[in-house]
């Protein structure tokens, strides 16, 4: 298990520039895979995907390679619905305890990219 402070994606895995949640406050994410549901926060987001940070252990029921549906919601935005594929699941240590990270690649990057721009724009204006 790695420390969350040490969590960095390998640069060669990055397909697009990341925006980290502390830059856009912390909208929450409701993620659904089959019958499992989790609520977390955006750890980082880009045009091609996002990473969700979750507290509860039920993220361990999620499977790499499976389809996941997400609803991103916050006080300054309209709800954003995104579908993608889970590409990585990690458990990391933080000062607040153990966290789960779920990396998701968007199914429709073009549509998701437009929604990400709207999301970032909304939070940038409200800051």
TrEMBL record:
InterPro entries: PilZ_domain (IPR009875). One of its GO terms (molecular function) is cyclic-di-GMP binding. Residues 12-114 form the PilZ domain. This is Type IV pilus assembly protein PilZ. It comes from Leptospira broomii serovar Hurstbridge str. 5399.
């Amino acid at each position: 298990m790695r420390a969350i402070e040490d969590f960095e994606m390998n640069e060669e895995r990055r397909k697009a520039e990341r925006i980290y949640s502390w830059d856009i406050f912390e909208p929450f994410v409701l993620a659904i895979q089959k019958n499992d549901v989790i609520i977390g926060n955006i750890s980082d987001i880009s045009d091609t995907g996002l990473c969700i940070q979750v507290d509860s252990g039920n993220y361990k029921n999620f499977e790499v390679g499976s389809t996941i549906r997400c609803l991103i919601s916050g006080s300054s935005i309209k709800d954003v619905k995104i579908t993608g594929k889970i590409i990585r699941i990690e458990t990391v240590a933080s000062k607040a305890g153990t966290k789960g990270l779920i990396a998701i690649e968007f199914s429709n990057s073009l549509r998701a990219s437009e929604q990400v721009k709207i999301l970032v724009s909304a939070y940038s204006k409200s800051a």
